Amino acid sequence: MRRWVKALAWTTVGLLGLGVLLFIIGPALFASVAYPLPREYQQAVCDEAKNFNIEPKLLAGLIFVESRWNPNAHSSAAAGGLTQFIPSTARAVAKRLGVEPFEPNDLKKKPELAIKFGAYYIEDLIGNYGGNKTKALIAYNGGNGAVIGYEQGFPFKGTLAYANKVLSTADMYEKIYGDWCSRADLPDLSAKAQNPTDLLKTINIADFWKNLFFNRDIPTNDSKSSGSINVDLFWKNLLSN
């Protein structure tokens, strides 16, 4: 009996130690798994960020929060694609950009077009709100009415959390991948990022786990996105390392 109790105690201590170790080195081991940057979309993100004068990390962070890089993402409000546009907004943006013929479902069929629309729209909103990215993201998520509520001290439920999530995710992308758009040959960053030792120095451990597991389900007024982690993509990237 004593041997069994002692074995159980040592097993518990070992598991706790392993948990602490994983908590500390997690950012180095799982950073690029938790925050993937699929190779097939890297060039489009870089090109459209440059075309519309926004930071690639902001565009990547927006796409991650909106769809977790799932080109077929669809919401109950009929928003679809990587950057989650509802049909009416998609048609308006298509008209502004001179994209024709156009159907909202094209954003699912052509992920690069969804990236272009997202880059244009967030850049336009940033300009409309005097360069304030928080207000621009609140508007992207909940419309101008949500911005008015935010300015008056009564933000719509979830919109400020959404904006903060995109901004913190954008910073995480920069810490994990650096200035990936400046590289001559874009590597496959979806599975491998920079040196793990460097990641331990640049990523705040508490911030990493907080961004990964807290505020995942951000309620939205238009129900565009559940914000939940794409488990299949997480394990696919992890096993491909």
Write structural notes for this entry.
Helix content is 63%, strand content 0%. The chain has 241 residues and is mainly α. It has a single domain (34-239), classed as Orthogonal Bundle (Lysozyme), CATH 1.10.530.10. Helix 2 (39-51) packs parallel to helix 6 (111-128) and helix 6 crosses helix 7.
Which descriptors would you attach to this protein?
single chain, 241 residues, mainly alpha, Lysozyme, 12 helices, 63% helix, 0% strand
Question: What is shown here, in short?
Answer:
With 241 residues, the chain is mostly helical.
- CATH class division: Mainly Alpha
Distance between the termini: 43 Å
- Profile the largest sheet: none
Mean pLDDT: 77
Reconstruct the topology from this structure.
Elements: H1 2-34, H2 39-51, H3 56-67, H4 87-97, H5 106-109, H6 111-128, H7 133-142, H8 144-151, H9 159-177, H10 196-202, H11 205-213, H12 231-239
Helix pairs in contact: 1-10, 1-11, 1-12, 2-6, 3-9, 6-7, 7-8, 7-9
